[in-house]
Write a structure and sequence with these properties.
alpha+beta; Immunoglobulin-like; 5 domains; four-stranded antiparallel beta sheet; 4 helices; 29 strands; 16% helix; 47% strand
C-alpha cells in the first residue's frame, strides 16, 4: 500500500473519533441545559390527599392530609405550607410556617385540622406550598359536609305492657350516610322502667348498613321510654334518640282463661263442679290447674284438676269435688303460667242458690280481670263425642254405657251359638 493512502486512512479515523467526543460533549451540555430549565414547581407532585372522616357533619372537626413527592434530581427548599379555608375553618393554620428542604425522590406530608362550620355541601380549601427559591404550588382539596343522622326505628314493640311483666322491644339502627360511623351504642332510659340490658353495643355501621338491638323491658307504671343511640363520625360523638310511650294494661295476646258449660251437682255434703276451660288468648298457657277457694274446701276424689298446657283456642273439660257447707256460692280458681314462667290466677264465682240434689248449673265466663255470671240450667259439652277427658281420673269415663254395650254383645253371641235366631226365623216363616 502506498504511504499516502495509509496516512489518509489514519486521518479519517482520528476525525471520526474527535467527532464522537464532540457529540458526547454537546449531548451533556444539552442535558444540563434541559435540567437547568426544569422549574422547581415541576419537581413537586401531590401524590395523595386524605380527609378524615370522609364526610363531616355540621360542627364536626376533622383532618386533611396532603402528601407531596420530589420527583426531580435536586433538593427543593420549602418555606411554608398552608391550607386556605375557602368555606370551612382551618384550626392549625400556623403549624407549617417553616418547613425545610425535601430531597430528590423523598415524600413529605402535611396534616391540617379543619372544622365544618358551613352548611351541607362540597368545599374546596386550597393547599398552598411556598418554595424558598422561587415559585409556589396550589392544590384544591374537596371536603364534604353532610349532616344526615343515624336512623332509629321500632321493629317490634307491644302496644300495652302488663305491670311488672317483661316484654321484648326490638329496634333497628341504620346508617343512611355515605361514610361509616363507629362505636354505635343503644341505651334505654325511662322512669319506672327496668331493662335486663343496660346498653347494646352494635359497633361500626357501614354506609346503608342496618343492625337490630333487642331489649327485655319491665315497666311498673305508664311512662315514656327513650332509647339514646350514640355514635362517632371520626372523632366526633353524636346522638340520635327515639321515645316511645309505655302504657300499662292487659293484653289480649296473653293467655286468657274462659270457663263455661259449668254443671253443679250435690251428693250429700259433697259438691261436684264440671265444665270446660278455654284459652282465649293468643299465647299458650302452661301448668293450667282448676280448683276451688274459700269458703269451699277441696276434697277427694278430685280436689284439683290438672289440665296441663293449653294452646291458643284450645280447651279441656274438668271436674272438681269440694265441701261447701252453708255456702251460697263457690269461687272456682283457675291458675296458669305464661311463657316467662310467671303464675297468674283467675277466679270465677259459681252460684249454688238454685242448685238441687239432682244438680243444676250456672254458666260463668271470665275475661281479663272481670267476672260475668249468667244463671240457668246448662248441659255439659265435652270433646270426643263420648265426653271422655283424661287428667281428672276415670270418673269421667262413661263406664255404664260401655258395660251395657259389652253385655249386649255377649247376649247376641250366646243367642247365635244356641240357635235362637234360627228358631225365631222358622217361626216367622210358619
Amino acid at each position: 500500500m502506498p504511504w499516502r493512502s495509509l496516512h489518509a486512512t489514519e486521518a479519517e479515523t482520528m476525525m471520526k473519533h474527535n467527532l464522537c467526543i464532540v457529540l458526547l460533549l454537546l449531548s451533556a451540555i444539552v442535558g444540563a441545559a434541559a435540567a437547568a430549565n426544569t422549574s422547581l414547581e415541576e419537581q413537586i407532585a401531590v401524590t395523595g390527599v386524605t380527609v378524615n372522616p370522609d364526610a363531616l357533619m355540621r360542627g364536626d372537626t376533622g383532618t386533611v392530609t396532603v402528601e407531596i413527592k420530589n420527583t426531580g434530581e435536586t433538593g427543593v427548599a420549602i418555606s411554608r405550607a398552608e391550607l386556605y379555608p375557602n368555606g370551612i375553618s382551618v384550626v392549625n393554620d400556623k403549624t407549617y410556617d417553616s418547613v425545610g428542604t425535601i430531597g430528590p425522590g423523598n415524600t413529605m406530608s402535611f396534616t391540617f385540622t379543619v372544622r365544618a362550620d358551613a352548611s351541607d355541601g362540597i368545599y374546596y380549601p386550597i393547599f398552598y406550598l411556598d418554595l424558598r427559591d422561587s415559585g409556589s404550588i396550589r392544590y384544591s382539596v374537596p371536603v364534604t359536609v353532610e349532616s344526615t343522622e343515624i336512623q332509629v326505628n321500632i321493629v317490634d314493640a307491644p302496644k300495652t305492657f302488663p305491670a311488672n311483666s317483661e316484654d321484648t322491644i326490638v329496634l333497628s339502627v341504620g346508617n343512611p350516610r355515605g361514610n361509616s360511623v363507629n362505636g354505635v351504642t343503644v341505651t334505654p332510659t325511662g322512669e319506672g322502667v327496668a331493662s335486663t340490658q343496660t346498653a347494646v353495643f352494635l359497633g361500626a355501621l357501614s354506609p346503608d348498613e342496618e343492625k337490630n338491638a333487642s331489649f327485655r323491658i319491665q315497666a311498673s307504671q305508664s311512662t315514656k321510654l327513650t332509647f339514646d343511640v350514640s355514635y362517632r363520625n371520626g372523632l366526633n360523638e353524636h346522638h340520635a334518640t327515639l321515645t316511645i310511650p309505655v302504657e300499662i294494661g292487659e293484653r289480649a295476646v296473653e293467655p286468657e282463661m274462659v270457663v263455661n258449660n259449668i254443671e253443679v251437682a250435690r251428693s250429700g255434703s259433697t259438691v261436684t263442679l264440671t265444665g270446660d276451660v278455654t284459652n282465649a288468648g293468643l299465647k299458650d298457657a302452661y301448668s293450667v290447674k282448676v280448683t276451688v277457694d274459700d269458703p269451699a274446701t277441696p276434697t277427694d276424689p278430685y280436689p284439683v284438676y290438672v289440665v296441663g298446657g293449653l294452646e291458643s283456642d284450645d280447651f279441656s273439660s274438668f271436674e272438681i269435688t269440694c265441701l261447701a257447707q252453708g255456702a251460697s256460692s263457690i269461687p272456682l280458681l283457675v291458675q296458669y303460667k305464661d311463657e316467662d314462667g310467671e303464675t297468674h290466677s283467675e277466679t270465677v264465682t259459681v252460684s249454688l242458690s238454685s242448685t238441687e240434689q239432682t244438680g243444676a248449673g250456672n254458666q260463668v265466663q271470665t275475661g281479663g280481670s272481670g267476672v260475668i255470671t249468667r244463671s240457668g240450667p246448662q248441659t255439659v259439652t265435652r270433646s270426643g263425642g263420648m265426653g271422655m277427658s283424661f287428667g281428672g281420673g276415670f270418673a269421667q269415663v262413661p263406664l255404664l254405657e260401655i258395660g251395657l254395650v259389652a253385655v249386649g254383645g255377649v247376649a247376641v253371641a250366646v243367642a247365635w251359638r244356641k240357635g235362637y235366631f234360627g228358631k225365631i226365623r222358622d217361626r216367622i216363616r210358619k
